[in-house]
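S., here's the first fold you wanted:
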Amino acid sequence: MKKIVVLGCGLVGRVMAEDLSQYHQVTSVDISKENLDKIHSSNISKVCKDVSDISVLNDVIKDCDLVVGALPGFMGFDTMKRVILAQKNIVDISFYPEDPFELDKLAKENNVIAVMDCGVAPGMGNIIFAHHNNTMKINNYECLVGGLPKKREWPFEYQAVFSPIDVIEEYIRPARYVQNKSLIIKEALSDTELVEFDEIGTLESWNSDGLRTLIETMSHVPNMIEKTLRYPGCVEYLKVLRECGYFSYEPVEINGAKVRPIDLTAKLLFPKWQMKEGDEDFTVMRIKISGTENNKQVEYTYTLLDRFKNNTISMARTTGFTCTSVANLVLENKFTKIGISPPEFLGDHFHYINDYLKERDVIYKVSKN
């Protein structure tokens, strides 16, 4: 039985800790006792400490075989760097803005396996992409993805599974995509389109920075785009808040005190976005991959429609189980690549990961045209 430390016990971190505890000795670490108290499994050790303190982090991971990262994005890069310096392997889901490949040399020097962005998209979408990249010449990759509440409540019709600031980052970080081999950069929330989904109806898609490492690692593919999905109308409210400065990191002075608008906005919005007892959600994703395979034009379409089940948030399941499947790959010595690995480096392990997800009732349907 391997020893795993899961950093972060929010909605996703808790699901990952409980899943991994079926096979391994798991310790869950979080600054919030309230979060730790929500763990159902008696097999999980709980540590209520602040891992932003490097001495605390080093102490809690010193005896483990693997670290699983589920911290907010603003902590992700520095935490991964510290875990690498401690010479511990890590599989991580935090959506940090920094370039992960800046840590590649350090990981190699310390003989560390470090898998990042290991969620849904980025995450499973990248793995599917890489799986087909092994067998065909891809010309187009499109990923539409979103996690949404079952119940639509005015004004945002949205609930957050992740840290509020991480969600807001999606609304302000410039979106990058590739068109005819050229990198295009547009503001987030741009190019809104209405898209139809079976069982769900009409959703609104918009540019977000979800391609991430694919821009570099899949640079031979001429057309690549990822767009986020929300209920129609949501984007207009977000644009108003953004344009009024509510998402700004630049401090403003109020009655002699300096306040970052984004901190105030996150504080105000979190109660409105927070998943509450009894709330249900769903995750929807559609991936289209087209190109040439065996001298024929083909298009593969993957669809995911996953709903709240077994008293577990869908986005936590779909994100968390992708990460725990990769954690098991590392622990079983089936993925041994030293250095920084974005999820597309796991294309050869698509079937293992997909089967792991199927066992947990996360089903990606695929069609070929």
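And the second, which I think is the more interesting of the pair:
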Amino acid sequence: MRWLPRTLFGRLVFILLAGLLTSQVISTLILFQERHQAIYRAGGIQAAHRLAGMVQLLDRLDREQRKQFIRVLQSRIFRVRLQPVYQPETRIKPGNKDSSRFFTRVLQQLLGNRPMQIVVRQQPRRRRPFPRPPRPGQPGNPMADRMRSMMPYYRPEVEALRDSRVALFANIRLQDGAGLRIQQQLRGDSIQWPMRSLAALLVLVLSVIVIALIAVRLATRPLSVLAKAAENLGRNINQPPLPVQGPQEVRQASSAFNTMQQRIQQQIREHSEMMAAISHDLKTPITRMRLRAEFLDDSSVGDKFRQDLADMEKMVRAALDFMRGTAHQETQVRIDIQALLESLQDDYQDQGQIVQLEKQPVAEYPGQLLSLKRVLTNLLDNALSYGHSATVSCKDNPETLIIFIDDDGPGVPEDQLEHLFDPFYRAEGSRNRATGGTGLGLGIARQLVTAHGGTLTLANRTKGGLRAKIVLPRIPQIKA
């Protein structure tokens, strides 16, 4: 699912918040619906009592008194019309059946089982029935002031009903057979959102979000520590073990990680000791063979014999260096990269090799001098072995130091570039030592660059040849 966050922390927070917010929204909607129904029914009962009281009063008045009383009651939100004879309305629009039955049942309980028609329905939102009172310092509206003065007891209802969308139609028979038709807007506060409840819900949601963030962070932090330790393990196998603390699952994972690190360290030590033993055991026969080569009558055969012995020593030394590495043997110093490159350029030029250096200001780099010198030497040797010249350039910024080494050789197929770092792998088809080395130089260079927390990659140049790119962080992570 692409829309999910990529990190475990983000996914856990998303799942928790989505579930909690969904449940809160659903429960809030149910609560507000219940509140709306309760307020609506309470308002309906109150309106039914007022209507029943008015009907009972009209039952006691004569025709002339009824007209005067109804004239006083008239307003935009309350329309009353008196008919000589009660007649059921046949063209009335249907309304909400549940609300209509509820209102009818309440009125019948108050007025008795007399003929009546009650319809409660929703109506479109309208403009305010009365203008708002004038602000201080503004001229008033004479018509609105007169209407308010005529019906002072309706002023609160007018202000509360300005957003009402619930209308009541009633057709009731009076005791003398006359008909009373009423159209009234019910109170609008039953459909208004309670601001205090919304504020409480907002506080609850914010509290849940904060608690979820803290809980998920506490739960995922040990995993982040474990992932960081696993990443650093590739750079420094001798890093301190993880502290075994926290929940039981985290302690088990930390303990298993420390056990794995100890086994890897033990395996590396055993391999290094084996290679050291092989190297030591090979020194004696190689020395004897070199001495015997001095007594050969054929000088050309002796030279070839000594060259083979030198290649054997070179291979053994390279294999030992690859297995052991040399980064742990040095201390960190501040290196003048430009001076180091100029020194290497002079050494190669003394040997008749062409090494070009693009000079530019480079800040000092905190690293291990011999290790970086060996990295550059291996890469320059590789460039000069397969090309006629090598070009070195740098790109410096506050976060990283990037060194490029380009050659003018034939290049390497794209599918073989990464294999060049494998031990004893050589892209050149033959194993001729005149056109290549032992196949360990690039692997050793990458090992030493990785020990500094950097990366070493190879790529074909568009103009031909191969480019080696070294990226070193300004805060290197070096093996202790």
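Why I say that: The radius of gyration is 47 Å. The chain has eleven helices and eleven strands.

Talk tomorrow,
H.
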